[in-house]
């Protein structure tokens, strides 16, 4: 097999890259280790930045998203049993976020690629990259009992944090920056109507809690937990008790309960590899960086990376210019580090640090009062939350 760009991973990064390249007339083949059913049903992110929605709209991918997604113009920060609204749209010249589940984005992207004759090879295992320092790299893989290879001009490593692309860069040629957090998130999906018109980020002495949504009948809730805890330790009654405590509000508001049909625990880390290029291999999305989910940035960063990468590859193929490709890593790292910092800042402001001393909580409350009373501080939060320009 031969293609111009071999793409490893059919997550948001790999699928969108393939779509954007096709719009520039550049061929690609996506290799995905899981099945189509699996990638279309994995529950993950839910918040799309304005720039992500704009890009999906401009490239013909947003028909269902615009119909079924929920546009939110603000979020609530809740602490001291009181809610404080951050007017996202009022503080950012009308920008907003859209709540639309990541696996719905995946379904839309897979359908768009396959309808356009794009190639996605599912259940492709034992992927191995070869000749990355040459101008003709090869991707080797296995489907069932059949070993195959793809000759390419470039390889895009879009295979997430646990993929094989980043480890294909020699250790001496990369630097990895990492922070692990001593807490994680317990996430649930609930059959219930929305509890609130906007997302609620709650900072409580017992720990963080987040009220999000999926539809008029399904809600998404998270609360801070020990990342080593087990789902089995959290029967439904204990979950509702904890959420009630952390989300308590002086105005008598209570979270709407319902049948919990999915539970999971997510560990949290900040991670960046530099650079995102090695020869003809370019990393994008979670393969290159991870943020703790508090700022809702991961999926959006993956989108921003591949937008820049697709433009740079287009410059190569349409004009023979390689400067944009050579600058790819430097270009995307500026936005990556801004999002990394924002996600760390939101996380630090809102979570309970298990071994935090009393002064830590006082600092958090001072910060929360600052962002909910200072126009400048609220604007900083809003600008980052709705998303900075994607270059
Ligand atoms: P992935 O989605 O991880 O896709 C990588 C793909 O590569 C996978 O399909 C995988 O199967 C495949 N793969 C892996 N290894 C190989 C291999 N060796 N060979 C072939 N294929 C391989 N982000 C937001 O922006 N907003 C949010 O609200 C948000 N909330 C989140 C909530 C949770 C609970 C979690 C877990 C994450 C959240 N994120 C959020 C982060 C977001 O989900 C990720 O940043 C996003 O999925 C990154 O996309 P990606 O394409 O880079 O990687
Ligand atoms: C969701 C996830 C997030 O990480 C976040 O900050 C807000 C909402 C969600 O899954 O709905």
Q: Brief description of this entry?
A:
With 391 residues, the chain is of the alpha+beta class. 35% of the residues lie in helices and 28% in strands. α1 packs parallel to α6 (102-115).
Describe the protein's architecture and organization.
With 391 residues, this protein is an alpha+beta fold. It is 35% helix and 28% strand. It contains twelve helices and 22 strands. The chain has a seven-stranded mixed beta sheet, with helices on both faces. Helix 8 runs antiparallel to helix 10 and helix 11 packs across helix 12. It starts with a strand and ends in a 5-residue tail after the last helix. 43% of the residues are buried. Bound molecules: flavin-adenine dinucleotide (FAD) and 3,4-dihydroxybenzoic acid (DHB). The site of 3,4-dihydroxybenzoic acid has 10 residues, from strand 16.
Main sheet attributes: strand count, strand direction, barrel closure? 7 strands, mixed
Outline the low-pLDDT stretches: none
What is the helix content? 25-40%
Radius of gyration: 21 Å
In total, the number of strands is: 22
> Based on the structure, what is the oligomeric state of the protein chains?
single chain
Secondary structure elements and their pairing?
Layout: E1 5-8, H1 12-23, E2 28-31, H2 36-39, E3 47-48, H3 50-58, H4 63-68, E4 70-72, E5 75-79, E6 82-86, H5 88-91, E7 97-99, H6 102-115, E8 119-121, E9 124-130, E10 138-143, E11 146-151, E12 154-157, E13 175-180, E14 184-191, E15 199-204, E16 207-213, E17 218-225, H7 236-246, E18 259-266, E19 269-274, E20 277-278, E21 281-283, E22 289-290, H8 298-319, H9 323-326, H10 328-350, H11 358-373, H12 375-386
Parallel strand pairs: 1-2, 1-12, 2-8, 5-15, 12-21
Antiparallel strand pairs: 3-7, 4-7, 5-6, 9-10, 10-11, 13-19, 14-17, 14-18, 15-16, 16-17, 19-22, 20-21
Helix pairs in contact: 1-6, 1-8, 8-10, 11-12
3,4-dihydroxybenzoic acid binds at residues 45-47, 199, 210, 212, 220, 293-294, 296.
